[in-house]
Amino acid sequence: MSLKLTVITDTHYYSPQTGTSGKAYENALMRSQKLLGGAREVLISAFNQIAEDKTSDIVLIAGDVTNDGEEAAHIEFREMLRELQSKGKKVYVITATHDYKEKCKKYVGDEIKEMPGLSRGELFDFYREFGADEAIACKPEYMSFVVQLPDNVRLFAINDDMGVEGEFLDWVKEQAEDARKNGQFIVAMTHHPIIPPSPMYELIGKGDMHRNYKDMRKEYADMGIQLMLTGHTHTHNIGKIFSDRGNAFYAVSTGALVGYPAPIRKLTICKDTVKIETETVKSADIDTNGLSLEAHLKKQLIGVIGDMIKAAGSDIDKFAYMGQAISIKPKLIYKFGWIIKPVFKWLNSVKFGTFAKWTKKETGMKKSDWQNIKNDKVVDFIISLVSNLFSGENNLTTDDPKCRIYIGFLKIIDSILQTVHVNLGKIVKVAPDATSLLAPLACQGEFDAYNTELKLFDYISENESREITEHVPEYVKMKKSKKGPVEQDIIPMIKHFSVSLADHNTISVLAMICCQNPSMNPMQIVGALENYLPQCMPDHATCHRLEIYDAEENIFR
Ligand SMILES: [Fe+2]
Ligand SMILES: [Fe+2]
Prior knowledge:
By secondary structure, this protein is α/β, with parallel strands linked by helices. Helices cover 34% and strands 19% of the residues.
């Protein structure tokens, strides 16, 4: 089995009939991290690029196909899809929440006028030639379908506008069971994210996630859906979790095709792996002021984030208006406006030299380590963090002096919060402290978001359990200090071992270790990991002894 698929999402087709000039249009563009006018040209170019690629005949589109549900946009976009089909590509589409609206906006000079939109009820039939017509199973009332692809691969196109629950969830389960029985690999696509690209996104975009995402990703995993393609966030990233039963689940989120970096994913599904590659739209017939398309789109993204940060320090109303560009709800901004404004006012002027001095103890850096960056503005670093969140680029490393200072500063915030007995975890709920909430923005995730190979796992049914050794490092050794540099292989000493995911970037390991010395310091295990498997060492690891048992496994103390 080796099937190649092309994946794009959030095409947000913007019809020129919506207006491409005037004050009202400029205002809308001001808070848009994606293209409005010009989106059509980028899509034409992207579709040509896809049509020319003879390695893949199947194109998947994971929702938000139009700017905001305009009827004109749907009609024009459908024509483009038909043209792509006529060039030999099979196109499968789901729609999402930006694809239906009763009354849509149209920009005419200084004014915002109305133009007709399509209703949600009209969408399924409107796009039925792109999947539903050839479905082997179909659930029109939930706008979802299953298609048989070549090489024993089945596509599950799951519209999640209203969540996936009740009889709809039962239907998805039935379909998954049928696919498993027939030896089919399932590729699912839905619109809303199931694994957030970062805890910070989870905080600000919680309402935009797949409904009940924490339970649903495990449900999907235990149905045998191992690969889920998503959109919506306009971020490019890949996440993985295991269900409690041990089934794997990958969520592959693709960035918006009309925003930086205009990504087109290529998937190759093989027996044991899914190879993922990313190319970007090379050029488009739009005015980029002499820049490459990529640089032009990046400039727009960075410009919007920069303006937003400036507004956060000076004008909360403007910040609330612009924040919607990156899914921040105005309500949230007004709630915390009293603290946002002074903090950002100060952030807009502060330089790295100031932070470097404050974080001297935390970073252990000497003056010579940060001399070169002392006049660099902190705000530019923050912009790069947000930009990287969208683009999925990993151009920062934890050795980078700016990163070290940033993480050092987060540690200071956490110790202040601890001193004043403020439990940030209880307030934000998505991370236990400021470091866990914000440090991932500067750290590389488990996967390269652009090009990587995902290992596929065998399905574990309800009554089976996976051999734990799959998750155990091949060997873990410890030093026994009293006897000098004697090393002990602790693998034979491990009686039970289980791994679970506490959240998307925290792994929790529960182990029962049989040893002669009950006062053994459990942190030696972390030390052993650091020494022998540095590639597996997490950014932060801690080890606690929970209970001590006697030889009969009764609690000793
Ligand atoms: Fe979108
Ligand atoms: Fe969306």
